């Protein structure tokens, strides 16, 4: 274990990345716990206000992200400065992406259905960073044997091919499949060979003169969304909290 840690984490300089990912995930979890306690009126926590203005945690998150980012650029990734900057950056990124939906909509949609986008972005970001962390780095590792070079070369070729397959899945409008398919190759392959979603680039490019394919794409997307919308909401609500019910809309007058 010690040899693996040295060769694959410390020597290629991945420790800051590991610290950034760990602090990012912990910050998101802690933040969600605190805001859910505030929402329930429990615990000693409360909203931060200044002059009657509610200060969202994306504000300190932006500051920490900037400080950590510039600190990482100015630091040696093998030194203590790089590790500290990575932790600061991870904390800031966790605070910012926890309120990603607010930035996207320019509105306080934290506890609305639109606020679920924050949870999706955090999960996808953690998965991508985890992929970078788990991958074999061919750079920064010294004195590789011929067998190690061949192993790493094979891994790089496999990752490159899987990345291209994931791009095909992405072009078919399957963003989640493409992202997680970068980790689970069979998932990417399944997304690449199946029908594209109706509004995707692939459907616009290749289904324009194929009405049967376009109709099958619409039907499959409808069935897929109807089947998985409920379970996906349950998982998102478990992670981020159940959103407030949408207010009923009054009928328009004649």
Quick overview of this protein structure:
The protein is an all-alpha fold and 254 residues long.
Structure description:
This is Integral membrane protein. Keywords: Membrane, Transmembrane, Transmembrane helix. With 254 residues, the protein is mainly α. The chain has a domain of 137 residues. Helix content is 69%, strand content 2%. The chain is built from 11 helices and 2 strands, in the order H-H-E-E-H-H-H-H-H-H-H-H-H. The chain has a two-stranded antiparallel sheet with strand order 1-2. A hairpin with a 2-residue loop joins strand 1 and strand 2. Helix 2 runs antiparallel to helix 6 and helix 3 packs antiparallel against helix 4. The radius of gyration is 22 Å and the shape is flat. The termini are far apart. The C terminus is likely disordered.
Pick out its properties.
two-stranded antiparallel sheet, Integral membrane protein, disordered C terminus, single chain, transmembrane, membrane, 11 helices, flat, mainly alpha, transmembrane helix, 254 residues
List the SSEs and their pairings.
Blueprint lengths: L1 H9 L4 H26 L8 E2 L2 E2 L3 H17 L5 H19 L1 H6 L10 H19 L11 H26 L3 H7 L3 H9 L7 H6 L4 H30 L14
Antiparallel strand pairs: 1-2
Number of helices: 11
Compute the CA-based radius of gyration.
Answer: 22 Å
Low-confidence runs of at least 5 consecutive residues: 136-142, 248-254
What is the chains' assembly state?
Answer: single chain
- Report the structural category: mainly alpha
Q: Determine the mean pLDDT.
A: 81
Write the element-wise H/E pattern from the N-terminal end onward: HHEEHHHHHHHHH
Largest sheet: 2 strands, antiparallel
Strand order of the largest sheet: 1-2
Number of strands: 2
Strand content: under 5%
Helix content: 55-70%
In whole angstroms, the N-to-C terminal distance is 73 Å
Overall, the morphology is flat
Transmembrane segments: 15-35, 55-74, 80-106, 118-141, 153-170, 177-196
Protein name: Integral membrane protein
Keywords: Membrane, Transmembrane, Transmembrane helix
């Amino acid at each position: 274990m010690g040899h693996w840690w040295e060769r694959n984490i410390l020597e290629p300089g991945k420790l800051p990345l590991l610290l950034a990912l760990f602090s990012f995930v912990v910050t998101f979890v802690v933040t969600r716990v605190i805001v859910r306690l505030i929402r329930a009126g429990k615990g000693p926590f409360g909203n931060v206000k200044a002059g009657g203005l509610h200060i969202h945690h994306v504000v300190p998150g932006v500051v920490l992200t900037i400080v950590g980012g510039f600190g990482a650029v100015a630091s040696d990734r093998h030194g203590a400065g790089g590790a500290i900057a990575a932790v600061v950056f991870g904390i800031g990124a966790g605070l910012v992406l926890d309120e990603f939906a607010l930035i996207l909509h320019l509105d306080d949609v934290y506890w609305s259905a639109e606020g679920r986008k924050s949870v999706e972005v955090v999960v996808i970001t953690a998965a991508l960073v985890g992929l970078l962390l788990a991958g074999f780095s061919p750079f920064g590792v010294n004195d590789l044997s011929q067998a190690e070079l061949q192993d790493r070369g094979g891994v790089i070729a496999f990752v490159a091919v899987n990345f291209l397959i994931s791009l095909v899945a992405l072009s078919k409008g399957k963003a989640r499949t493409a992202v997680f398919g970068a980790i689970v190759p069979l998932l990417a392959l399944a997304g690449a060979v199946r029908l594209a979603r109706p509004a995707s680039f692939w459907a616009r490019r290749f289904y324009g003169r194929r009405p049967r394919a376009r109709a099958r794409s619409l039907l499959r997307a409808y069935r897929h969304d109807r089947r998985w919308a409920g379970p996906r909401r349950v998982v998102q609500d478990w992670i981020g909290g159940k959103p407030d019910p949408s207010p009923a809309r009054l009928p328009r007058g004649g």
